[in-house]
Amino acid sequence: MAIRVLHVGLGPIGVGVVRQCASRKGFKIVGAVDLDADKIGKDLGEVAGLGRTLDVKVESKLAAAIKAGRPDVVVLCTSSSLSKVADQVADVLKHKLPIVSTTEELAYPWFSNKRLAKKIDVLARKAKVAVLGTGVNPGFTMDALPITLTGVCERVDSIRVERIQDASIRRLPFQQKIGAGLTPEEFAEKVQGGAVRHVGLTESVAMIADAMGWKLESITDVIGPRIAAQATKSEFLAVQKGQVAGITQTGTGYDKNGQALITLHMEAYLGAPESYDAVIVKGLPDLHMKIAGGVHGDIATASITVNSIPKVLTAPAGLQTMRSMVIPSWFGGKTR
Amino acid sequence: MAIRVLHVGLGPIGVGVVRQCASRKGFKIVGAVDLDADKIGKDLGEVAGLGRTLDVKVESKLAAAIKAGRPDVVVLCTSSSLSKVADQVADVLKHKLPIVSTTEELAYPWFSNKRLAKKIDVLARKAKVAVLGTGVNPGFTMDALPITLTGVCERVDSIRVERIQDASIRRLPFQQKIGAGLTPEEFAEKVQGGAVRHVGLTESVAMIADAMGWKLESITDVIGPRIAAQATKSEFLAVQKGQVAGITQTGTGYDKNGQALITLHMEAYLGAPESYDAVIVKGLPDLHMKIAGGVHGDIATASITVNSIPKVLTAPAGLQTMRSMVIPSWFGGKTR
User: Angle CA(B204)–CA(A156)–CA(B54) in degrees, nearest 5?
Assistant: First the structure.
């Protein structure tokens, strides 16, 4: 029996999830909801750029879509901000449906958004379903994966994660999100306004800290420009020498002595010579893990969202995180 | 409140677990059982080579040790063979105690030992506790870790894992177990007799296959000698050119077309130029992960066993595997 999925939010990430659910075994898309007037009423296949129709019309109202589609699960890809999606989560839970969401701040809201986390947890338990925030980062490369690696350690002293990405192979909105092509002044302004930043480092630091049982004194999240030392370009953008090629961002968790226990360092810029994800655990033993080429952000976020759908159906009721879930795995359409 | 642990089986792996439980926060050792007359009646600290007493006398009888120690959990490190430990597992379950075991064949018994797996599952559910087989391999590097990595994949076509170890830094029993110093003829004889082999490749292949939802036609487990191209030695052994420096062993899972979907390749020999663990996932996207230096087998097996103790206390009742458990993590003595 295919899992009946309702998609809420049809931005770039949302349609990435739609494309996988439409083409992978084990899923039946039974509805889609978005607020964009350009999408409402159109066939979901067209909106998702599938090149074929899916016989699913994009709706504007959640309740009507649930009533018509009778989904088993809702995939929520509307915003990075938990305060923006909290009401949407509550609405879905009124219908007693489990949720998988790509909302970055939902990946581990127990530090920055404790009150909302508690509220969602209570509603989900009452509805007897699980709610999970996931994605490649936060959700995997900078939290669940390093936590998993510490499972073979006798002692853990500190954890450092590096995620270095050559942004030139990513989509245009991503290149814009990291500030490629801006002057340093424009970059600083955009950072100030919150338009240029990766959301989730604080969430990942907090998830790791709680998994290790570490009490942190503070978490910092520092953004800076990566200035082009020479001219570089992508399919979409040209960057002059001295302009911004992309972003560096570091989330750090400090103990009460000012020691950095957790360091999550990202760089995403045009022309990075090597993309990779690395985890360095200092302890007994030390561990040095590297994924050559890195984990492709767009594919991976949609993939882990889709792969989490069958797991969230059997997870205990309440607000779950990748830390409290059964180990991730690819879902090939049937469970054995 | 410290977790009260009873240790059953005090061989090299068992005492490795004892040493960690004795020195790490969050545990209180309340008993130890072994059949070896040389150990019975002695203080566990002495038997484990701790250089201090633990005020725990090694017992010969499980029931008496449970009655005296009132453990929360039993750690079982008596044998690689499930048929040899099945009665011990059943005995512990009579006392309604959860079990973490390093028995390799218990890591994923649903292929080779289905009848015993079913029996243990039923007994554990009846006792309302969880039973888990774990270790570095099987249990982590060649199954749980590659499965975890596929969580970010849209499609998985095949999985290859390599575990290459320079055995010269390992303990003498390990070097003997891999046949170092034997002639090729002696090696072949020992393989024939079952004395030289790594136990667990079939279990890891089966765990991965079930996680991927793949139906395998067959699983093979092939052992060969690694012949020394030049003289080499360890602290304990000298190997002449032409003698056996160690073992190569490959577990392979084939589909009905004879295609190798899962390949788990191990080499452990004196003088390996580089130790590492690698996972290569072919699919969308491809993933190339490498742990430089590898995961040290002795420390890691004891560590993941100890780290699994708090998790098994809250796991659902029944026979669990690393595939059905919450993601692994280091346990620092308290849960947050």
Answer: 90
